């Protein structure tokens, strides 16, 4: 194989591209319930919209800007626009994911400029993980559940009710959720955004047989320093993350194309089919052929 084929994408990337969000209604707000964490959200990603996660059950963890948070039932997580994040399940993780464009609260912010402080001042006065000991925490959960119900039923004036509930949620977090004087917030990892270009290069060149030395050279760091930076910021080693990216792409191709499994393995950077099958089952708990068979059954 010509190792020069995949060295650079045709156009040098500037950053990881944001994940697109499609709104189900004219209001820029959506809520969905996820069971487990799909491969696409195990990869490092970001979006411009604001996100509120309510952990309905189970356990897991997420990495936000290089900070790792353990997740359990009852937790509330705030994710700001442009925050690089990824999540993993450890045991039957169920999450209500609320996403919204801050522009939907433009009228409210005319009268309360601090309404979005819980997002804007993360790492300063607020943390991604809302303090469960804060006053009104139970009310925050009730609001999130009510917003979900309103979105599902869509009774008359549901959009106004959701806007009002979201405003109250943010006001309560702003009032009660700020860190106490002298209490330090987790420090955002300084190198996380510097890795955006590198990670996109990896995503666009999955078939290239990257070595640790080559990846480190793209960041102008020594392999040891680069590995330490990447591990701290992303939560896994560079080559392990590359394997996750390759396997995630393999799932996409298995579900969306009729390519042979051996061709998909090669296209995603695996030179050995048995190694591809082993790593695939290790990460997803099923074989590539089982994923392909599930797709075939759905088409019948």
TrEMBL record:
<dbReference type="InterPro" id="IPR020449">
    <property type="entry name" value="Tscrpt_reg_AraC-type_HTH"/>
</dbReference>
<protein>
    <submittedName>
        <fullName>AraC family transcriptional regulator</fullName>
    </submittedName>
</protein>
<dbReference type="Pfam" id="PF12833">
    <property type="entry name" value="HTH_18"/>
</dbReference>
<dbReference type="InterPro" id="IPR037923">
    <property type="entry name" value="HTH-like"/>
</dbReference>
<dbReference type="Pfam" id="PF02311">
    <property type="entry name" value="AraC_binding"/>
</dbReference>
<dbReference type="InterPro" id="IPR014710">
    <property type="entry name" value="RmlC-like_jellyroll"/>
</dbReference>
<keyword id="KW-0238">DNA-binding</keyword>
<dbReference type="GO" id="GO:0003700">
    <property type="term" value="F:DNA-binding transcription factor activity"/>
</dbReference>
<feature type="domain" description="HTH araC/xylS-type">
    <location>
        <begin position="196"/>
        <end position="294"/>
    </location>
</feature>
<keyword id="KW-0804">Transcription</keyword>
<keyword id="KW-0805">Transcription regulation</keyword>
<dbReference type="InterPro" id="IPR018060">
    <property type="entry name" value="HTH_AraC"/>
</dbReference>
<dbReference type="InterPro" id="IPR009057">
    <property type="entry name" value="Homeodomain-like_sf"/>
</dbReference>
<dbReference type="InterPro" id="IPR003313">
    <property type="entry name" value="AraC-bd"/>
</dbReference>
<dbReference type="GO" id="GO:0043565">
    <property type="term" value="F:sequence-specific DNA binding"/>
</dbReference>
<dbReference type="InterPro" id="IPR018062">
    <property type="entry name" value="HTH_AraC-typ_CS"/>
</dbReference>
């Amino acid at each position: 194989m010509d190792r020069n084929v995949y060295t650079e994408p045709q156009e040098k990337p500037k950053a990881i591209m944001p994940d697109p969000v499609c709104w189900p209604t004219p209001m820029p707000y959506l809520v969905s319930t996820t069971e487990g964490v799909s491969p696409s959200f195990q990869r490092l990603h970001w979006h411009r919209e604001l996100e509120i996660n309510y952990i309905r059950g189970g356990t897991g963890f997420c990495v936000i800007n290089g900070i790792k948070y353990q997740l359990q039932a009852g937790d509330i997580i705030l994710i700001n626009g442009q925050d690089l994040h990824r999540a993993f399940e450890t045991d039957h993780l169920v999450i209500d994911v609320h996403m919204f464009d801050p522009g939907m609260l433009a009228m409210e912010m005319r009268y309360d400029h601090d309404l979005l402080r819980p997002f804007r001042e993360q790492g300063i006065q607020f943390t991604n993980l809302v303090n469960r000991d804060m006053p009104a925490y139970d009310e925050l959960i009730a609001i999130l559940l009510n917003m979900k119900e309103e979105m599902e039923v869509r009774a008359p004036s549901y959009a106004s009710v959701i806007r009002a509930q979201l405003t109250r949620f943010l006001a309560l977090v702003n009032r009660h959720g700020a860190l106490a004087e002298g209490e330090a917030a987790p420090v955002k990892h300084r190198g996380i955004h510097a890795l955006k270009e590198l990670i996109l290069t990896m995503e666009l060149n999955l078939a290239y047989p990257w070595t640790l030395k080559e990846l480190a050279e793209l960041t102008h760091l020594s392999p040891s320093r680069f590995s330490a930076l990447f591990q701290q910021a992303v939560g896994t080693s560079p080559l392990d993350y590359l394997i996750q990216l390759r396997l995630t792409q393999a799932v996409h191709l298995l579900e969306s194309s009729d390519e042979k499994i051996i061709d998909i393995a090669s296209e995603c950077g695996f030179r050995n089919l048995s190694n591809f099958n082993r790593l695939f089952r290790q990460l997803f708990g099923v074989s590539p052929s089982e994923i392909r068979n599930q797709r075939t059954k759905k088409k019948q």
